[in-house]
UniProtKB/TrEMBL annotation:
<keyword id="KW-1133">Transmembrane helix</keyword>
<feature type="transmembrane region" description="Helical">
    <location>
        <begin position="353"/>
        <end position="371"/>
    </location>
</feature>
<keyword id="KW-0732">Signal</keyword>
<keyword id="KW-0472">Membrane</keyword>
<dbReference type="InterPro" id="IPR050640">
    <property type="entry name" value="Bact_2-comp_sensor_kinase"/>
</dbReference>
<dbReference type="InterPro" id="IPR019734">
    <property type="entry name" value="TPR_rpt"/>
</dbReference>
<feature type="domain" description="Signal transduction histidine kinase internal region">
    <location>
        <begin position="393"/>
        <end position="473"/>
    </location>
</feature>
<dbReference type="InterPro" id="IPR011990">
    <property type="entry name" value="TPR-like_helical_dom_sf"/>
</dbReference>
<keyword id="KW-0802">TPR repeat</keyword>
<dbReference type="InterPro" id="IPR036890">
    <property type="entry name" value="HATPase_C_sf"/>
</dbReference>
<feature type="repeat" description="TPR">
    <location>
        <begin position="201"/>
        <end position="234"/>
    </location>
</feature>
<feature type="repeat" description="TPR">
    <location>
        <begin position="161"/>
        <end position="194"/>
    </location>
</feature>
<feature type="repeat" description="TPR">
    <location>
        <begin position="241"/>
        <end position="274"/>
    </location>
</feature>
<dbReference type="Pfam" id="PF06580">
    <property type="entry name" value="His_kinase"/>
</dbReference>
<feature type="repeat" description="TPR">
    <location>
        <begin position="121"/>
        <end position="154"/>
    </location>
</feature>
<dbReference type="Pfam" id="PF13424">
    <property type="entry name" value="TPR_12"/>
</dbReference>
<feature type="signal peptide">
    <location>
        <begin position="1"/>
        <end position="21"/>
    </location>
</feature>
Amino acid sequence: MKILKKKIILLLLFLIQFTFAQKQDSISTLLNSYIPSDTLRSRQLIKASNYFTYSNPQRALKYINEGLTIAKKKNWKNGTALALNQKGSIYYTMADNLKALDNFLEALSMAEQVNNQKLTLNLYNNIANIYADMKDFDKALDNYNKCLNISAQQKDSINQIRAFNNIGNVYSETHQVDKSLTYFDKALFLAQELNNTFFVAAIINNKGLAYKRKEDYKNSLKYYSEALRLSQNINNKYIEATALNSLGKVYVLQNEFNQAKKYAEKALIVSKNIDAVEWQADSWQVLNQAYENDKNYERSLFAYKQYIKLRDSVTSQEKNADLTKKDMQYQLDKQDALASAEIRRQSLIKNTAIGIGGFLLLFAVVGYLLYKRKRDADQLKNTAEIKAKMAETELKALRSQMNPHFIFNSLNSISNYLQTNNTVKADEYLAKFSRLTRSILENSEKKWIPLREDLELLKLYIEIESLRLKNKLSYHIKIDENMDIDNTLIPPLILQPFIENSIWHGISKKENDGTILIEISSANQNLICAVEDNGLGRNGTIKNPNKNNNSMGIKITNQRLDIINEIKNVKGTINFIDKKQGLRVEISLPLELKF
């Protein structure tokens, strides 16, 4: 499912032109009537895949795989480039940016080899769209400008409009609003000259977003309303949905909640019809604020749950790392190809000028360069593997800290307080839950944070669980008096899985109250952290064979510690100490200071 954006990107993904009036049956008949595996069938398969990209991407993928296989077999390089571009387009509509970029980069290399300028322009735009989605705006601008330069040289107005609009989106999203409006106006001028209503509606919608970011709500409402009118005239549900949601959000900013609710309800209907998940989440977010203003807390909570359920997951660092590696590989391959061509040219000159002696010298130089290249490549590979492992482990750690059971239990507890009319407790619970969730997401990209911040997060987590357990849980934090908790750094929430284990497996099963003790000290350039509880302990919980005390969170913590040991060249440890009543866990980390 393609997750749609709040801004409208004018895509160049589907430039392979053919008659869209063809029906599905006629396409199948055409393919079945022409069987030979040659370039003509490959071309028909590419066109058929293009036709089904939006309506049936799986069928489109089946057609393009066959077309790509034939093109490669027949060594039809231009067809191979076209097929790779189309395959990338399908993956982009399916929200698989990683596979999309893989195919686009391979297609770009092939298109440049056969000097297909139109396809090269297309691919620069496609790659830029992916970088813009991933918030890598420098690379996005670089590729959009390449697209703009080529389209200007070819006097291609359509692609100039797309490039101007997409560059405007980047500047708008990076809060360079006045600069973005300049590019939107250039795109709008060309679109109006061509009388292209779709482009005009999309660009005007983007201008509404730019004015909203500028806090010029009067102009923002003006442009969003015009975009809504145009989208309804041409029956474009994508622009209609984003314009409706955007109007609702601007009215919220102006505290006109009745108007906001009206537009959000309309946007929700349109978004559901086109299966636009992100825009459905936006509609629920506006409705949550409108119901809260009406003091309709039950419907407000329901809307908030729907918003949380549909909201985009945290951007995967693992995908960012893979995308960067693929781009680097493409650039290195391109540079290697240029370097090899230059070496061959110089070799010919030297062989002609100085004969065998020059050839031997060149051979020695090339041998050294190949050896150095292999050595450098091995070093880059090792570094990339460590970074990828770090990204994967950090993503898993975030998922363990934001596990669905904790979120579900917290929201249910809030709901229970509301049903019993205990709004004070519900507000307290919701405030703590919101602070914890925001802090976890904010710290998800950080390798180390100050100890004070981490302890505040742990306090919030324990207090939320204590509320859920009817305050049968208490905690104490003991810090060595010589420690500066503002200057001492620690990996974010590395103690949380052990506290979770203590609560779920040690204390929640007890009949009486439980206590968690957190101790922080330092020794021999190591940070010593201990989590101790007076719960059932491992001897008590092991009686139930369905419970596994070595939770996924603890396994991930072990992996995080292994990476820290490898990078810092230290020997951090985790020790479990059984007590007469309860369990003590001691973690040894390298002592890291801010300054």
